[in-house]
Structure to design on (551 residues):
């Protein structure tokens, strides 16, 4: 299975339906996109991500310098 | 106590909504996507649309429910205030304005045994958000399952015991695992100030997140007030002097949560960690994209038996968020004008996309006075960045009635002299019309009747209501209600 957003191939199952066997929820280990097995996720081109984009996203809020 | 009905929990409010015909139940079995988001969209578009509760969600079964659009109409908003559901927006504005001045009203701290939110506990490895809440994707291009209506409680790490600096705010949450959440802490918000102090020392910032709250708790959590003003003391004021019931969080000495909430998520923000969050359909009616944002860890949950998951729909206005941010944005701005130099201001409507467009109703004393009120508005803390367009109308025009506002634009504006554009002013980056995010021009339209020394060369005789109009409004409404 591949991430519909960034095509990363390591996907975690983060949930199973409380009533057994109805659905599962998957999440990409790289970009955290998540979806339910009953969905047919269609990520718009404008929201697709590459590894480089993920590594260079704006950081909110900025991490302050350490004061030790 | 008081003439207004007060709700200390979501359940009590849902009962009132149901009695008033403002809550409907969907009992057919549905998948969470796209049904729940679709219902939130549809209900908030209806005139006086109801709250919508889903009681049969595929994969969850009995005992689980989701409710959306709880605040999503003027009727529901009026009932939140304990007013008749027919109260006009201006009447609700005036009542809210009166209660605002009751601040502060100290909250009522109840014991753990008395607090419904403590009925059940899960902690450690047993924490699983998906087992507790029917989470779902709200809009198609959202990056995951979001919780859009939390009341997040945090303290100031520099002064944790100071109750006035305990902050209760609404910051969107993206669920990222059974016990992990992404949290948006924008630099302009109080929680970011607190987080910065914790992160400088690489310390965790403890939080307690209340879900499914009394309606005025949610309302207050989305109201911008000063850093050292306590939201619970405001809830008491808005409840017309009835203190908010709160209880100490289980895992933190300094955090207090609403006693009647459906679910309390306790944990901490993981210091100095940022991961990909978003996109999420936001209040301007467009998606906010992916950013690297903070993450929280849930270590301890308390909840009411069969908790009701309350969530929101956001989309192209108007949706529930627009009702939730309408009057709590308008009232503080009104006070900043009326109480600080412009007593001629009668009302302020700052409810279009969180105040991107604002309408001031006033009785100008001299030529150019109304424009001065616009300048004052554009120098107040919220409007300076948010407000792009200012419309000035006379005191007898209800700024919440767009039929009247457009009448004023149509019959009082001479475009050659009454429309002004001021270049290169402060903006609000979430407004997609800003070419450089954070910079904008300001538009001022003066739709008031000219006052001396501004010339008014044609006399205008305003039509007034016939003498018994108010009396007949009531007679007709009562007759219609009895049909
Ligand atoms: Zn991915």
């Amino acid at each position: 299975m591949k991430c519909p957003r960034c095509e990363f191939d390591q996907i975690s199952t983060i949930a199973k339906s409380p009533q057994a066997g109805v659905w599962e929820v998957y999440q990409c280990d790289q970009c955290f996109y998540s979806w339910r097995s009953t969905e047919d996720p269609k990520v718009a081109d404008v929201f697709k991500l590459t590894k480089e984009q993920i590594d260079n996203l704006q950081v909110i809020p900025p991490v302050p310098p350490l004061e030790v | 106590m008081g003439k207004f009905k007060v709700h200390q929990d979501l359940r009590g409010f849902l009962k009132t909504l149901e009695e008033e015909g403002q809550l409907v139940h969907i009992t057919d079995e549905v998948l969470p996507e796209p049904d729940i988001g679709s219902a939130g969209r549809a209900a908030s578009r209806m005139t006086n649309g109801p709250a919508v509760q889903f009681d049969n969600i595929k994969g969850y079964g009995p005992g689980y429910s989701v409710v959306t659009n709880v605040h999503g109409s003027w009727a529901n908003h009026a009932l939140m205030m304990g007013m008749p559901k027919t109260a006009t927006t201006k009447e609700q504005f005036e009542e809210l304005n009166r209660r605002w001045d009751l601040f502060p009203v100290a909250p009522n701290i109840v014991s753990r045994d008395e607090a419904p939110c403590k009925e059940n506990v899960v902690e450690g490895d047993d924490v699983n958000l998906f087992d507790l809440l029917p989470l779902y994707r709200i809009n198609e291009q959202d990056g995951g399952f979001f919780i859009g209506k939390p009341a997040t409680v945090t303290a100031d790490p520099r002064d944790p015991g100071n109750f006035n600096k305990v902050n209760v705010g609404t910051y969107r949450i993206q669920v990222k695992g059974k016990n992990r959440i992404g949290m948006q802490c924008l630099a302009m918000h109080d929680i970011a100030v607190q987080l910065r102090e914790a992160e400088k020392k690489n310390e965790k910032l403890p939080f307690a997140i209340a879900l499914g709250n009394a309606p005025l708790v949610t309302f207050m959590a989305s109201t911008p007030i000063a850093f050292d003003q306590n939201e619970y003391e405001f809830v008491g004021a808005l409840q017309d002097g009835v203190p908010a019931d709160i209880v100490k969080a289980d895992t933190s000495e300094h955090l207090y949560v609403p006693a009647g909430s459906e679910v309390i998520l306790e944990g901490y923000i993981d210091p100095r960690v940022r991961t990909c969050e978003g996109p999420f359909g936001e209040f301007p009616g467009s998606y906010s994209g992916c950013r690297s944002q903070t993450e929280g860890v849930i270590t301890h949950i308390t909840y009411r038996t069969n908790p009701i998951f309350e969530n929101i729909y956001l989309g192209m206005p108007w949706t529930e968020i627009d009702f939730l941010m309408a009057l709590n944005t308008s009232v503080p701005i009104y006070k900043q004008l009326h109480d600080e130099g412009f007593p001629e201001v009668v009302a302020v409507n700052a409810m279009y996309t969180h105040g991107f467009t604002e309408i001031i109703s006033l009785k100008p004393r001299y030529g150019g006075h109304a424009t001065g009120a616009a300048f004052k508005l554009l120098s107040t803390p919220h409007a300076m960045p948010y407000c792009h367009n200012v419309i000035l109308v006379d005191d007898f025009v209800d700024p919440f009635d767009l039929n009247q506002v457009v009448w004023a634009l149509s019959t009082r504006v001479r475009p050659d002299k009454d429309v002004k554009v001021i270049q290169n002013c402060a903006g609000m980056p979430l407004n997609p019309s800003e070419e450089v995010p954070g910079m904008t021009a300001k538009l001022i339209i003066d739709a008031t009747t000219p006052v001396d020394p501004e010339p008014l060369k044609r006399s205008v005789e305003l039509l007034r209501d016939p003498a018994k109009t108010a009396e007949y409004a009531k007679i007709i409404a009562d007759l219609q209600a009895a049909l």
Summary: Residues A 3, 5-6, 8, 28, 30-31, 33 surround zinc ion (CB under 6 Å). The CA atoms of residues 152 and 209 of chain B lie 4 Å apart. Chain B touches chain A through 47 residues (CB under 8 Å).
